[in-house]
Automatic annotation (TrEMBL):
Pfam families in alphabetical order: C2, EF-hand_like, PH, PI-PLC-X, PI-PLC-Y
Residue numbers annotated as active site: 330, 375
Protein name (Swiss-Prot/TrEMBL): Phosphoinositide phospholipase C
Keyword Cytoplasm: yes
Gene that produces this protein: plcd1
UniProt organism field: Pundamilia nyererei
SMART domains listed in its UniProt record: C2, EFh, PH, PLCXc, PLCYc
MF (Gene Ontology): calcium ion binding; phosphatidylinositol-4,5-bisphosphate phospholipase C activity
Cofactor, how bound (note): Binds 3 Ca(2+) ions per subunit. Two of the Ca(2+) ions are bound to the C2 domain.
Binding site for Ca(2+) 5: 723, 725
Cofactor(s) annotated in UniProt: Ca(2+)
Catalytic activity: a 1,2-diacyl-sn-glycero-3-phospho-(1D-myo-inositol-4,5-bisphosphate) + H2O = 1D-myo-inositol 1,4,5-trisphosphate + a 1,2-diacyl-sn-glycerol + H(+)
Amino acid sequence: MSCFHKRPKRTKSEEQAFLEHLKKVAKENGKRLGLEGDSDLQFLLLGGKLVKVRSKSWKHGRYFKLEEDCQTFSHESKKAFKQNHTFSIDDIESVRKGRHSEGLKKYTDASVEDLCFSIIFKGRKKNLDLMAESPEDVNKWVSSLEKIINNMHNLSNQKKSEHWIFSCIRKADKNGDNMMTLKEVKHFLRQINVEVDDSYAADLFKKCDTSNSDTLEGEEIKHFYEMLTRREEIDVIYGKYAQTEGQMSDRDLLNFLLNEQREQATAEDAHRLIEKYEVDKTAKQNNCMTKDGFLMYLQQDDGCILNPAHRSVYQDMNQPLNHYYISSSHNTYLMADQLKGPSSTEAYIKALMKSCRCVELDCWDGPNGEPVIYHGHTLTSKVLFKDVIKAIKDYAFKTSQYPVILSLENHCTVEQQKLMARHLVFFLGDALVKKPLGDTMPTNFPSPEALKGKFLIKGKRLNKLDSIFTNNNVIEDGTVSEEDEAAECKENSQKEKPKKSNIKLDKELSDIVIYCKSVHFNSFEHARENQAFYEMSSFKESKAFNLAETSATAFMHHNMDKLSRIYPAGSRTDSSNYNPVPMWNVGCQIVALNFQTNSKEMHLNQGRFLMNGFCGYILKPEFQRNLSSQFNPNTLTEGSWLKKKIFHVMVISAQQLPKINKEKQKSIVDPLVKVEIHGVQADNASKETHHIENNGFNPMWNKKFQFDISVPELALVRFLLEDHDTASQNDFIGQYCLPLTSVQNGYRHVPVLNKRGDNISSASLFVHLMLLDAP
């Protein structure tokens, strides 16, 4: 292809020297990544020619390569005075081979399928659509990228930290001579988010400059790194329990696990941890754990705040579907706001890959007889219904095997509804539930386990479900009332309140609505006396919050028999979210949020669904499933839900927090930590530490808090890190949220997630936790 750009021309000797240099870089950085001398890493460092695709007419050749930090990808910009475009390996969500992005499907021909691939980024960053010269090149690029992404993901926290620091050292070494002057050391300290006075920097430099050469190199840089990353708090804890010739024997470690971590550990558990985390062979042979091994343990899953047993599916998945909270998205097709933002199949893929198990499809008549999905009465862009169904089919069960509910908001004419039904049946095939499970009329929902790998359609139905078994099925189209949310949407777009209208419903589309038939909600009493278990209502947030406040117990009983879906008010045109916690407190299952919006509410949602293998289904507490329960989250009375606890939290320190203002080299964060409890009204609380000035690298607080908890099974814990600002609102640094019942006691590291909910690989929070029965 003529639009490919070749590598810069060099003489034979220059080329040889360049390749030798890359081999050296691949060996040095590859060692830290566990890819020492790897040919795929060398391939990416060398780089190559690719065509960047933006439109039918904009297809330009660019030279892509991995920078020597093995963390940053770059390609040149053809605009005058523009620096090379760069992005971090950490920003990549996935790499897709073939024409699987909207851009490549739209702007390239099917004949070049095997020359295409896409780099998909986390968050709202646009995909990078690319073409290579040959299928072999595509395979090489995709496999090499996937290898380094997976390798970065699987690195231990200690290795990630080390890699991050050494990449900062490389950036600070301005002239690339592998030596650091005092000036470069000061620049490096700012890079890693710590501000120190000149005398401290000079003192640190002098201690490490054992050769008195006014530069640090080789072992001196290593010594500098070790001095910088020393964890005093770990030294103290290790020193207390390392009672065997300065090391921690298996008995010492067991003592630590029993007394400090409050684990029901055995000698075998101590041996397992030494075998798993100890880095020194001699210590391992002597059944001992060194300080390095101890730190490695604390930074891995066993030492994490999240109970490792909750990282996989551990709950009973054979209960009826309505006994679970179900991770749910509102207006799933939107990438941004509700008025003029883009609609995209990519939004469905991102939600499904986050284990969302209920997605929404707003369906309207489209051109050429093909139904489209978009936010009606607005300027949001449109996407073909069939393209969305194809994307859902391809990505629904990649992160979770449990059932996906397609919530249809149907505005189409009967002709296009027929096509909708046919697309659903054709593309979803046997995975689509088209009749009840079993040979008789059910009286309750099947379980998530029984519905593994299946799709359920939520929408209007012309008749009762039992007509399937009584030969009394409808044989033609009919009329039904429109969806409640559709009526509200119309109300928001018109000056006068319109009457709720009827729509004509196609029989084929009606027939595939089995367990999730949409009906209007009148009252809990009416629902109890007139609605079958499979007839469900959708509630606007204001209606739902009012019911949760005035009729909490009745709402909870309603949800023991039926499904409820809650959706954001139409006035939230900015795609903001409501607080989902009060809805879970009354047992609502489908609490739909705008997944595309990075908000506190989405952090709580991610925290709620973090446990049980992040499968998108969480079994509700027993008191929300038992009909004799009189639980009311607003006025707590005696009952099985009341399990009073005292939650002790000590915020000790943080490590390698990200810079907030990366544009300003001298901008250092002043971090503080907030600890929040979200649950029943009586348990809601928030407490915060003081801020530490000019230190995002290793701030230390040693601040103790105590929380009184009444209903631990409904409580979420959220750690929020902020950059203190005296003049304006504090800036967000990171956060982590999880259920209180998934918290491990003792000394624990807490991962730090960004606003999108993605892990900041080098950062962590170190805490001591104790959840005790109240006296």
